[in-house]
Amino acid sequence: MIDQKDFFRKLEGNFGENKPCVAYSKPGENIVKALLQLDNENYQVQDLSESGFVFAPFDPENDSYLIPAEKSERLEFDIQLEEDGAIPSDEENIDSVDFEYMEEDQKRHENLVQKGIDEVKEGNFKKVVLSRSEQVEVLDPDPIRIFKKLLKKYPNAMVYLWFHPQTGFWFGATPETLLRVERTKFNTMALAGTQLYKGETDVEWESKEVEEQLFVTDYILESLENLEGVENIKTSRPYSAKAGNLLHICTDIFGYLKDPENLKDLIETIHPTPAVCGLPRQEALDFILENEDHSREFYSGYLGELNLKTEQKRNSNQRNQENQQFASISKQTELFVNLRCMKLKDGNARIYVGGGITKDSNAADEWMETVNKSQTMKAVLVK
Ligand SMILES: C=C(O[C@H]1C=CC=C(C(=O)O)[C@@H]1O)C(=O)O
Fold it and tell me: Do you know which InterPro entries this protein is assigned to (predicted)?
């Protein structure tokens, strides 16, 4: 552990030298971690047996970047947010930020959504997730300051700052777990449906949302059941999960891997999830790539720790020194879907937002949903 001033100084030093780095805090953890790559080589993921931090794009055909564990320095500090004011207090953040939209932006998105609804009604697919991106001028484009604000505002999200000479700066505060693996046990989630959070998580959901989320759960279960290396799959009951100013319906899905060294098949089966692509997957993916007027790049891709050796707390009851050491190191994979995210370039942020379209969707409501989702990033861009 180092103190947070040194942590941020080192992080800034790394991207100042154009070397890849990532700083992040996982949901509910009071620890901020970083991997600072020691050189400025471009490492890529080949078969997901690598160890490090992965940053993967939406389109599985494109390259996934890796900061390899063995080529980087690892840092961490405990968040003591209130202590020295290094992380700004919540009062500086306002909850809803008004931005002006061009009528054309709204029309363009609504037309895209309508096209998606029509295709669903024609039976070409059951669900498609359609997105747009929006450029916002940032008054204070200091990456560290933006990251600190995200940490303060979203303690229950996976909050990150990613820098790579090939991708530039990306930030996010995502609510969606793609995959967590501990020894042979894994979990993923089926996430769908959105409503504004109004101080209450015990809320009613409309049947449109309930049905949409059930599609997602069923689709993931079916894909997992067809996968050779996976067994003993179980689900939680659906519940409302808070994500910033929003609520979603979530079902946790658990299972066991026959060979925990082989994550490739599992990750290729679940990414891109129906929360960001649609179902059936290939038909939805083709429609997205053909019809969205922007490239998603890393939005709705995934990111996180891949086979990262992590030290666990030692069990002081254990007498045998060798066993103790054996028990203290474990491999950790914890990947998140890159939602509620933005790219920072030349003093501008590009915010990416989307929503799931089914036969019962309404284009104007879907536009509003993307406006609401964009607040997650906008709230940290205001002074
Ligand atoms: C695609 C996004 O959100 C997904 C995650 C949760 C709920 C969603 C929805 O209600 O449409 C989306 O599937 C996004 O934030 O850009």
Answer: ADC_synthase, Chorismate_C
Which residue out of 128, 248, 271, 358 has the highest number of ligand 1 atoms within 8 Å of its CB and is therefore the one to mutate? Answer: 248
Ligand 1 center to 46 CA (angstroms): 28
What pTM, to 2 d.p., does this model score?
0.93
Distance CA 244, CA 94 (A): 12
CATH (domain of 54) = 3.60.120.10
- Atom of ligand 1 lying closest to residue 276 CA: 1
Give the tens place of pLDDT for each residue, 60-101: 999 999 999 999 999 999 986 544 444 444 444 445 666 777
Q: Is 89 left (phi over 0), alpha (psi -120 to 50) or beta?
A: beta
Name the domain count of the chain: 1
> What gap in Å lies between CA 82 and CA 98, rounded to an integer?
28
For residue 170, report the phi and psi dihedrals to the nearest 5 degrees: -130, 150
Residue 383 domain flag: no
